[in-house]
Amino acid sequence: MSEPSFSELDVPIDTNIEKEKPSSKVLRGMPDFFEIEATERGEQIDSDKNPEYVMINLDTNCGMQCPKCAEPGQGAAERGKSLSNEERTAILDLAAEIGVKELVVVGTGEPTKWNNYINQVKPAIEAAYERKMGTVLFTTAIGLTQEQAEFYRDHDVTVIVSLDSLDPANYARLVGHADKPGASNILPAVLEHIRILRETYAADSAQATADGRSIVRLGVNVTVQGANVDELEAIRDFAGDDMMFIANVLMPEGRARRFEDFEKLVGEKGLDALRKRAAEMSDTGGHSSLANEVCSYFNRGISVDTDGRELFCGYDSQTHKLGNIQDHLSAQEVLQRYQEKRTVYRAWCEQIGQKPSCPNRVEDTPGQPSFAEFLDEWRERQQPES
Fold it and tell me: Which of 52, 112, 286, 357 has a Cα-to-Cα distance from 298 of 20 to 30 A?
């Protein structure tokens, strides 16, 4: 008997809320974009067989100090030696072999800082492009230049810009720079860099799907917090027709891991209210890669940390449960681990009676294991008895 698909699981999702209206946009590199491509070719995507994404964390630094950040910090004790560009390229070779379509760079630092861009980001994107993969790049755009924008455009990069406020003072607070000299100048610089991106990518805005939706290659990503939930409409208006508007809720990881810090960021309205508002407002219904209400970076991808260890999710460097990808650098072994993760996630969803969009965003359920604990228990049960 085959495993049920996520859409067939008879369990509630963590946010069963309809968007205000269906999006008129499709973001290049997201699941619905790949579905459209497959349909045009007369094919069907089998996500149980092959992943679509490889998330690779680069060992980059960041000048921001965002309280929301899921990154545990540079030099985290549990990490080993960072991968070289050559080792990352070997992972991309493997990813291409097993059918991956998109490299995703979410961390660990700011990719547009010049040293990060030249030494790690640009080589990774070039390697992906040479293997006929696109790239999804998350950034604050604080260091973006015209040269970078043109490079991203010409190398099939979808750029998603974090923009948590349109108020200079609030933006400075949310990136941890409220008390720093020149804090009021940070947002204007970011907005200027977004202007550069929009002008550079403008020629692509004419692409459309058969059903009339526009294909866009830029996005605005808002992490909804108590301090910015009332700005969502203004930020969505700013995104306009050429940028996908993405709204998602806080993740209790990294700097936000401590309970008191997380509760402070959530604010008086509470997490459920933020989650509901994000789902209502976001063009995607939540975070960027949702498909069947589950994050596709997790559910349809493999994630690799700076040192090569596999993660459940590139946003969470605490989930080293799958070993180091360099120790099993073969297509068969990587596919087995990918398929095991999907199978275990289905079983976990059924046990806890929920279908979380992300294992790191589900609230603790008394008496129920976390996904990491469930995976450990699952593997113990699979071991042959001695």
Answer: 112
